[in-house]
Amino acid sequence: MFFRLIDIKKSYQGGSQKTLVLKGINLDINEGSFISFVGASGAGKSTLLLILAGLLRPTSGELYFDSKKLTRLSDKEWSFIRKQYIGIIFQKKIFIPHLKVYENIITPLSFITDLSGRGFDDGRVEDLMETFDLKAHRNKYPEELSGGELQRMMIVRSLVTGPKILLADEPTGDLDLENSKEIIHILKKINKKGLTIVMVTHNKELALQARNIYRIDKGEIAKLIK
Ligand SMILES: Nc1ncnc2c1ncn2[C@@H]1O[C@H](COP(=O)(O)OP(=O)(O)OP(=O)(O)O)[C@@H](O)[C@H]1O
Ligand SMILES: [Mg+2]
């Protein structure tokens, strides 16, 4: 077992209006799986991913990570788990423009060096940069990268801490199909080595690369059979 979501509901309060965005999600995410979420814009995909990341609290329902009931934890305890086990690629790309590619990539490591002796692993950083073909770009600034290179930088940055699960919101959002496929191909290889992946994508062809596909439709979830 890895993640278990039990009747997760989420509503957003906008002024006096409350909108129910997730309407009771039940889902198990097993260790080693590769899952994709598809669904229309506004369906609730990013909201669900942010809840899995512990960056957003559900309005009701329970979320377990292994045997830990995350919904019972304090923000501090939850953030400890996130730093240890979870890699995140946000839909809106967040990076530091005045830092070079390599410096951007290693920023997450500064948050975990204090945790249980898991510090800077230069070998892992170099391996990932090699895998995602970024070595030649290490001393550039993000604005000097192509769209694909920037996406790859975001992926490498999400993996430098050695997470057990990658939550990726449109990891190939800005790319053409050929480049997207190449990235998914690499993610599949990493998944085979044991990384659990949950990916949001608009693209059906890319979604099909995952082992399990779920459609999020108006806040409800349904499994699609390939
Ligand atoms: N912080 C917020 N406050 C209020 N409403 C929000 C907030 N974040 C998202 N929403 C609303 O919740 C709904 C679901 O948003 P979400 O970002 O989860 O959709 P999505 O499926 O990821 O869409 P997209 O494919 O366009 O990224 C949308 O109607 C959105 O406007
Ligand atoms: Mg989204």
State the CATH superfamily name: P-loop containing nucleotide triphosphate hydrolases
Q: Per DSSP, what share of the residues sits in E-state strands of 2 or more residues?
A: 25-35%
Ligand list: adenosine-5'-triphosphate, magnesium ion
Largest sheet: 6 strands, mixed
Gyration radius, rounded: 17 Å
* Number of structural domains: 1
- Run of helices and strands: EEEHEEHEHHHHEHEHEE
Number of distinct helices? 8
Helicity range: 25-40%
Sum up the structure in keywords.
single chain, 226 residues, alpha/beta, Rossmann fold, six-stranded mixed beta sheet, 10 strands, 32% helix, globular, binds adenosine-5'-triphosphate, binds magnesium ion
Give a written overview of the molecule.
With 226 residues, the protein is α/β, with parallel strands linked by helices. It has a single domain, classed as Rossmann fold (3-Layer(aba) Sandwich), CATH 3.40.50. It contains 8 helices and 10 strands. The chain is globular and about 50 Å long. The two termini are 23 Å apart. Adenosine-5'-triphosphate binds next to strand 1 and helix 1. The site of adenosine-5'-triphosphate (ATP) has 12 residues, from strand 1 and helix 1.
